[in-house]
Design a protein that fits this description.
The chain is mostly beta strands. 5% of the residues lie in helices and 46% in strands.
């Protein structure tokens, strides 16, 4: 079965850290650019961070720059999102997606979401004291 599966979400206090994983099964991630997206209750889905399959270039939303780090381990067929200094406003369901768009385009253009090749079902991150 071709799918992306996210893990690593949970409840964390403000200022804490989490590492999310996005694992692919049935296909190889190294052929795709990968993005992390989040959707908070009542809000639109937004691009958080994206990484290239070719040159390793990355994109980060302004709201997470300096706090989040995206990385990929092609040998493990997994992409990670290290999240530090978490804030209550980071609370959301986090999804990963694989697509053929450029890194910046896939992260900043919601109209491209429907064209992604694969989406995961998401993992919930709750930042609260």
């Amino acid at each position: 079965q071709l799918q992306l599966v996210e893990s690593g979400g949970g409840l964390v206090q403000p200022g804490g850290s989490l590492r999310l994983s996005c694992a692919a099964s049935g296909f190889s991630l190294d052929s795709y650019n990968i993005g992390w997206f989040r959707q908070a209750p009542g809000k639109e889905r937004e691009g958080v961070s994206c990484v290239s399959s070719t040159d390793g270039s990355t994109y980060y939303a302004d709201s997470v720059k300096g706090r989040f780090t995206i990385s990929r381990d092609n040998a493990k067929n997994t992409v990670y999102l290290q999240m530090n200094s978490l804030k209550p406003e980071d609370t959301a369901v986090y999804h990963c997606a694989a697509g053929g768009y450029t890194v910046q385009a896939m992260c900043v253009k919601p109209e491209l979401y429907y064209g992604m090749d694969y989406w995961g079902k998401g993992t919930l991150v709750t930042v609260s004291s």
